[in-house]
Design goal:
homodimer, about 550 residues, alpha+beta, six-stranded mixed sheet, five-stranded mixed beta barrel, 24 strands, about 25% strand, ligase (chains A, B), aa-tRNA-synt_IIb (chains A, B)
Chain lengths: ~550, ~550
C-alpha cells in the first residue's frame, strides 16, 4: 500500500453531483480544460460547498487537463496524453525522451513476462558493448546500407580525437557475430541462444514521436544460431507468438502475425516476420515487433562455421528478434481517450485507486478507515491498489487525475456507502458504475479487472476489424487508403510492384506500403489477380500507411 | 533442469584415482595446463582405462586450463579466470568487454535483491536518455571537471556532422536534474526518488580491466531529492547498508562502510560514503559502491526549488548512489583460486553439478537414473542443480571444467554409491568430500551450500583482516604500504596532507591515498597525531593503493 497523503480531513462534496465533469464517459475534454484552468473550486462546484474556508488550500492546477481530443488532432492528443499521464517528459535533445516511472513500470511488467518465457526456451541473457567499429559494422553489405544513415558516431573523448570513429549500436548483429564465430566450433556448441536488454540508437530525423520513433530506445534483442534451418524457422515463430502475447494478453492490443515483403524485411536477413498493429484514428499500421530469420548471410560474412556430428563443416542458421519500448506507445494510441490514458489492468502499476468521498459533516475517520481497509484487503489479494487521501484536492479533481493516469478501476467510499456496507466501483474503460457489498470486494474487483482487460482487447479488435477493407482493384485500393483503412489485397509479391505502389502513393501523408502477409492466409481463388499489377496474385497482404 | 548432453554411455574411470588432478585442493595449475593441452586421455589416465575405443571421441581441449597462478601473476590470473570461466570475452574495442551469461546471471541476481529493496523505500525506476548536451553537462563546475577527460562525444550521424557535439552520460546528475527542477514545485512533490538501471561510458585510458575498469559498464544510479538534509543523510546510510549486503550477503566479500576524504569524494557533491573492499593479493583497496549526499550544490545550479508547507521557498537536498558491474570483478578477485572461479552459492547460476561416474561395466543406466533423480529432487527443493551427462568428456575433465566455472558443489554418483544408496559431495571452496545417504540429499546439500556461503565470507574476512595494519608514523606507513597492507592510520583530515602523501608515494605501483574513514571509528586518544603531518589526528582512516 502506497498512500498518497496520510492525515484525515474534510472533503468537498461533489460525488454524484450534476457537474458534467462527473458524469462518467461523456465528460468533455474542453470542459476538463476549463476545470483545470480555473482556480478550484469552479463556480459550479462552489455552489455545492459551504466550506469556503477550504478553498484556498485546494491547489490550482493548470497543467493536467487534456486540451485536445483524440478525434480532432491525434498527434497533439498523443503528445498530451503521454506527458500529462506522466509517462514521458520531453528532453532537450530532439528525439530523446525521458521514460518516467509510469512508463518504466509497464516496461518492467512486460519484461517480467517475456524474460522467463525465453529462459524456458533455453535463451540466456548476455550484455554486449554499446560500441562497434566501422570495420565490423560494415561487414554485411545490405545490413549496413539499411542502417548507415542513422548511425551515431563517437569521434572524440574529452578533448582528444579518437584514432578511428566508433559507432553506437543501432542493433547488435555485427557487434555479436564475430564472437559467435569464435564460440561456435562444433555441433555441441549449438544452438547458441542469447538475448540482451539494452538501449540502441538510431539517429532518425523524421517525425520523432515518444515511444514510437525515438533516437534512443530500450529493447530486448535475441540472437540465436542453429545447426539447421528447421530449428531456426521454428524459433522464429515461437518468438513471434510471445510477441503476440505481449500485445494481446498484456497490452490488450490486437495484432496480426505475418511475414514482411522483400522490400520491408530486415536488412541483410533471409525473411522477417512481425506482429502488426493498427491505429484506427490515423489509419496507419505499426510494426509491433519483429522476429527475423537471418538465414546464413551473416554466418557467411562472419564465418560462423561448425563441424557437424559426422565431422563435416557446416554453416549456422541464425535468427534475431526484438521488441522495444514502442510497445507502450502503441498501447497508448489504441486505448487512450479524451480523458487521457487507459491502462489494461495487467500492466497498470496502480490497478485500483481508492478515493474517500466524505460529504460535509460525514464521519471522515470511519470513511478513511474503510478506504484503508479496502486497500489493505486488495493488496493482500495481490491487487495493486492505492489510496488517495490528499486533503488539498477534491474527490472530483482526483477522479479526473486518476482517469488521466489511466487507472483501470476507481473505488469511491462515502457516508452512504458506509451505511450500506458497500463501495462504488467505477470503470475507466466504460465509465460504468456499480455498487458492491464490502464483503465481496476482492472477488468483484478481480472480476471487473479481468473484464476490463478483456473489454479493452475486444473493443480494440472490433475497431481494428471495422477498418479492414478487402480490395481487388487499384481504385478500390486508393479509396480505402484515403479512408484510412487497413487494406487487405491480393498481391503478386513482386518487389517492383511494391516500389511502384509506393511511388504512386507518395504524398503529404507518406507512401503506402505492405504491412505484412498474414501467416493465416485466405485461399487464393482461381483467377485472382494483384490489385496493383494485374498479374496473378500469390498471397493476400495487408497494405497501408505506417509509422 | 538443464541437462548437458542426454544419452547414456560408458565413462572412463578416473574417480578416486591417484591422478594428482583429482586430489582436491592441491591441484596444480601447471599440471592442469598439461592436462588440457594433451590429447585426452593423458598417459596416466590411459593406464587406468581399458576402453581405448572411446579415446577418439574425447574432445581435445586446450583452452580451458588455468596457466597462471593467483600468487604468481595476479593480473594475468584474473584475465584468465574471467575468460576461461566464460564470464567475459574481450572485445575488439579496448576497454569494452562482453558480459557472457555466466556474468549476467550474477548481475541479475544482485538486481533481484536490490531492486525490490529500493522499491520498498519508495524509489521508482525511470529511464533517462544516454545523451546530454555540452551546455547542461557543464552546469556544475566541479562535477564536469571530474568527468570531462573521460566523456565520449558524438559528433556525427550517418555522414552528417551534428550541429553541436553531444556527450554520452558518464553519470546522470546533469541529465536528470533540469527535470527535477521542472517536476518539483511544492513540498508535496518531495521526496522525489528515482533509480535507473543502465549503461554509462567513461572513456578511461589507464589499465582497462574486465568488470573493474571498463569504458562502458552497467550500473544502477539512484537520484533522490528531499526537503531536508536529515532525510537525505538518512537515505545515504540506508543505501550504503544495501550495498554492504550486496557484497557481504551475496558476493561473500567483506567491505568497510566509510566516508571518503574531500579529495576522493564525488565531484560536485557534499560528501561521499562508500563500501570499500580489499584485494589481499595485490594489496589494493577497491571502491565497491558509493552513496553520495550531493547537498544543495546541484540544486543551486539547476534551481531545484520548492515551496514548503508555510509557503516559503526552499532548496532541495539531493543524493545519488550507484553500484556497478564492478561488484562481479571484486568477487572474482577475492574468491578465485588456481583452479579458476569460485562462486558463492547465492549468486551461482548453477549451485550444484551432478556428474555420473560409471566404472567400466557399471550399470550406467541406473547411475544415470540416480543422477537425474538427484537433480530433479534438488530442483524441486529450489536448488539450482544441473546434470552433466556428456559422453565425450571423462568425469575428471568435467570436475576440472566445473571447478573452473566456480560451481560451489559437485555431486558424484558411481556404482559404489549406488550400492550404498549414497552420493559423494565435493565442495568447491575447500575440496572437502563427504558421502551422504540419498535420503538426506536435499537437506545436506542445502546445509553445505549455506556453509560454503559462510565459509567464503569468513575466509575472505580473515584474509582481509590479516592485511590490516595500524600505523602511527610515516615509516610504519611506508613499510606497510610496501608490504601490501590495508593501512589504518590516524589522520588530520587535511586535503593538503593527502595530496602530499600521494605525491610522496607516487611510483610504479601508483600513489597511496585514503580509501575511507570507517563509520565505525575507534576512539582518538589524547595526543594521537596524524601519521603524515604530525598534527593532531581527527579520525582513523584506511589508506592504501587502490584500483
Amino acid at each position: 500500500m502506497r498512500a498518497v497523503g496520510t492525515s484525515s480531513g474534510t472533503f468537498l462534496r461533489c460525488r454524484r453531483s450534476k457537474n458534467p465533469l462527473h458524469q462518467g464517459k461523456n465528460t468533455q475534454a474542453s470542459l476538463l480544460f476549463l476545470f483545470f484552468s480555473l482556480p478550484f473550486p469552479s463556480p459550479d462546484m462552489a455552489t455545492k460547498s459551504s466550506n469556503t474556508a477550504k478553498k484556498k488550500e485546494v491547489k490550482k492546477e493548470t497543467k493536467l487537463g487534456m486540451t485536445v481530443k483524440k478525434d480532432d488532432n491525434f498527434g497533439e492528443w498523443y503528445s498530451e496524453v503521454v506527458v500529462h499521464s506522466e509517462m514521458i517528459e520531453y528532453y532537450d535533445i530532439s528525439g530523446c525522451y525521458i521514460l518516467r516511472p509510469q512508463a518504466m513500470s509497464i516496461w518492467e511488467t512486460l519484461q517480467k513476462f517475456f524474460d522467463p518465457e525465453i529462459k524456458k526456451m533455453g535463451i540466456e541473457n548476455a550484455y554486449f558493448p554499446l560500441f562497434v567499429t566501422e570495420n565490423v559494422l560494415q561487414k554485411e553489405k545490405d545490413h549496413i546500407e539499411g542502417f548507415a544513415p542513422e548511425v551515431a558516431w563517437v569521434t572524440k573523448s574529452g578533448k582528444s580525437d579518437l584514432e578511428v570513429p566508433i559507432a553506437i549500436r543501432p542493433t547488435s548483429e555485427t557487434v555479436m557475430y564475430p564472437y559467435f564465430a569464435k564460440w561456435i566450433r562444433g555441433h555441441r556448441d549449438l544452438p547458441l541462444k542469447l538475448n540482451q536488454w539494452c538501449n540502441v540508437v538510431r539517429w532518425e530525423f523524421s517525425n520523432p514521436t515518444p515511444f514510437i520513433r525515438s533516437r534512443e530506445f530500450l529493447w530486448q534483442e535475441g540472437h540465436t544460431a542453429f545447426a539447421t534451418k528447421e530449428e531456426a524457422d521454428q524459433e522464429v515463430l515461437e518468438i513471434l507468438e510471445l510477441y503476440r502475447r505481449v500485445y494481446e494478453e498484456y497490452l490488450a492490443v490486437p495484432v496480426i502475425k505475418g511475414r514482411k515483403s522483400e522490400l520491408e524485411k530486415f536488412a541483410g536477413g533471409l525473411y522477417t516476420t512481425s506482429v502488426e498493429a493498427f491505429i484506427p484514428h490515423t489509419g496507419r499500421g505499426i510494426q509491433g515487433a519483429t522476429s527475423h530469420c537471418l538465414g546464413q548471410n551473416f554466418a557467411k560474412m562472419f564465418q560462423i562455421n561448425f563441424e557437424d556430428d559426422k565431422g563435416e563443416k557446416g554453416m549456422v542458421w541464425q535468427n534475431s528478434w526484438a521488441y522495444s519500448s514502442r510497445t507502450i506507445g502503441v498501447m497508448v494510441m489504441v486505448h487512450g481517450d479524451d480523458k487521457g490514458l487507459v491502462l489494461p489492468p495487467k500492466v497498470a502499476r496502480v490497478q485500483v485507486v481508492v478515493i474517500p468521498v466524505p460529504y460535509k459533516d460525514a464521519d471522515t475517520t470511519a470513511i478513511k478507515a474503510a478506504c484503508e481497509s479496502a486497500v489493505k484487503e486488495l493488496n493482500t489479494a495481490g491487487v495493486r491498489a492505492d489510496l488517495d487521501t490528499r486533503e488539498n484536492y477534491s474527490p472530483g479533481w482526483k477522479y479526473s487525475h486518476w482517469e488521466m493516469k489511466g487507472v483501470p478501476l476507481r473505488i469511491e467510499i462515502g457516508p452512504r456507502d458506509l451505511e450500506k456496507s458497500q463501495v462504488r466501483l467505477v470503470r475507466r474503460d466504460t465509465g460504468a458504475k456499480v455498487d458492491v457489498p464490502m464483503t465481496e470486494l476482492v472477488e468483484k474487483v478481480q472480476e471487473i479487472l479481468m473484464s476490463i482487460q478483456e473489454n479493452l482487447f475486444n473493443t480494440a479488435k472490433e475497431k481494428r476489424d471495422a477498418c479492414i477493407e478487402k480490395v481487388h482493384t487499384w481504385d478500390e485500393f486508393m479509396t480505402a487508403l484515403n479512408n484510412k483503412k487497413l487494406i487487405f489485397a491480393p498481391w503478386c509479391d513482386e518487389k517492383e510492384v511494391e516500389e511502384d505502389v509506393k511511388a504512386r502513393t507518395k504524398g503529404d501523408h507518406g507512401a503506402a506500403k505492405t504491412l505484412c502477409s498474414p501467416l493465416d492466409q485466405p485461399e487464393i481463388t482461381e483467377g485472382t489477380v494483384c490489385f496493383a499489377s494485374g498479374k496473378p496474385a500469390k498471397k493476400w497482404t495487408y497494405w497501408g500507411r505506417s509509422y
